[in-house]
Amino acid sequence: MSGTDQPRTRLTPPEGATPPVRHPDAPAPGELLGAHYDGCFGCGTGQPHGLHLAARAGDGVSITAEFTVKAAHQGAPGLAHGGVLATALDETLGSLNWLLRVIAVTGRLETDFLAPVPLGTVLHIEARVTAVHGRKIYSTAVGRIGAPDGPVAVRAQAVFVEVKVDHFIDNGRTEEIQAAMADPDQVKRARAFEVNP
């Protein structure tokens, strides 16, 4: 291997991966996506200490999102907990699947922490799908402090794996699954099962 060769990792799309294709029924660029599930810690409004992350569809297969770091999100005094930052990136990356109109779960997430994020900060996240190979969806995200062009605080690479709704029915708690399946809003019902194992 020469000094310029990079070893292939599980986060590198394999040979034969294809560029992502935005679904024709995906939300329009700029459209607020809303919570995929009210009980979701990342985007749901039913979680008092959740992130309440707000994501918008971008161009191509991309998403922008933001959330404000609150006292309930701290690790070290006055700073965001790294796990909360990873959750914000995972939530944003998972929302990309709505642009492909597939149900997918996080298979692997690798996060790099580059700068501390103080309480009260608005973290601006941009994520995009880079490739698709079979059931695997490869994506990246960057979180910036204070503005869409602010300093980079955190970044991630991820692989999501497309699943059928049975994944949730077979593994989720019955009461929540039945409540989500009973929602008369077809879009909300479908989106309830879009992200995370």
Indicate the topology.
Layout lengths: L53 E4 L4 E7 L13 H19 L3 E10 L8 E12 L2 E10 L6 E11 L3 H6 L2 H8 L4 H6 L6
Antiparallel strand pairs: 1-2, 2-4, 3-6, 4-5, 5-6
What does this structure look like?
There is one protein chain. The chain has helices at about 80-100, 165-170, 175-180, 185-190; strands spanning about 55, 60-70, 105-115, 120-135, 135-145, 150-160. By secondary structure, the chain is α+β, with helices and mostly antiparallel strands. It has a six-stranded antiparallel β-sheet, with helices on one face. A hairpin with a 2-residue loop joins strand 4 (about 120-135) and strand 5. It is globular, with a radius of gyration of 17 Å. The mean pLDDT is about 85.
- Structural class from helices and strands? alpha+beta
Instruction: Provide the residue-averaged pLDDT.
Output: 86
Biggest β-sheet: strands ordered side by side in the sheet: 1-2-4-5-6-3
Task: Indicate the overall shape.
Answer: globular
Number-wise, the strands total 6
Strand content: 25-35%
* Gyration radius from CA atoms, angstroms: 17 Å
Secondary-structure element order, N to C: EEHEEEEHHH
Major β-sheet annotation: 6 strands, antiparallel
Helix content: 10-25%
* Count of helical stretches: 4
| Span of the ends, CA to CA | 36 Å
